[in-house]
Amino acid sequence: MSTQQPLRIIAMIPARYAATRFPGKLMQDLHGKTVILRTYEAAMKTGLFEEVYVVTDSDVIFDEISSNGGNAIMSKKEHECGSDRIAEAVEDMPVDVVVNVQGDEPMIDTESLRLLLDVFRGKDADLIDLASLKAPLADKKDILNPNNVKVITNKNDFALYFSRSPIPYPRDENTGVTWYKHIGIYAFRKQALMDFYRLPMLKLEATEKIECIRYLEYGKNIKMVETEVKGVGIDTPEDLEEARKILSKKNEH
Q: Pfam families in the record, alphabetically (predicted)?
């Protein structure tokens, strides 16, 4: 069976220099190393990937990774999103599963990634086009926050929909339902990623501004894996300070 064959798994870190909310954030200092270099090294350290690459549109980021002995790829053209940037880079690579690691999340949780990759060896592996992570939300403020993308799944943990709105809508708050935040780390089968690259954006994705909706609109199956780890994304200078504090505490132990 195809599920029993060893999978060739690589990690791709899409990295733009020009971020809207915090330009140049990937080149900011995080305890003596840049954010992007720390992310690259953290992905390598998991031991889960045959190769790790940073794929970028920036000479500065390309040089930062290359000069530190890492694998970097320059994008050939402009891209709307990280998935497109990765798809261009892997098009001619002999890989089975590609993990999209966010360049601004240097605190990679190895156990969550292992759980994510395990589904490609599980009982319904043949049904899975891509897999991603979700984490429970308890605070009402977090549930209502449109910056937190929420996800609902069927009983087999395949995604039904993603939204910036609170889904499900709490018409009856006594059902014991748990709200889940979508954590933007993906593991794609290569074919699903290449299909995404070639298929145009449809209205639901354009309305919500959530790229993984495109997969659902074209009938792809997204397996969701629960984790307690919400990650530390660096979107603002305040987030960078928070990451520095967390790293300081880790270094103390």
A: CTP_transf_3 (PF02348)
Q: Is the pLDDT of residue 11 over 90?
A: yes
All residues at 6 or more sequence positions from 170 whose CB lies less than 8 Å from its CB, including other chains:
177
- Provide mean pLDDT across the span 213-233: 91
Beta strands in the chain (DSSP E): 9-15, 29-30, 33-34, 51-56, 72-74, 97-100, 130-137, 150-153, 159-163, 179-189, 222-226
Cβ-contact 57, 17 below 8 angstroms: yes
Contact 163/146 with Cβ under 8 angstroms? no
The C-alpha angle 158, 218, 74, rounded to 5 degrees, equals 95
Instruction: Encode pLDDT of 43-98 as tens digits.
Output: 999 999 999 999 999 999 999 999 999 999 999 988 878 888 999 999 999 999 99
138: exposed, middle or buried (Cβ count in 10 Å: 0-12, 13-18, 19+): exposed
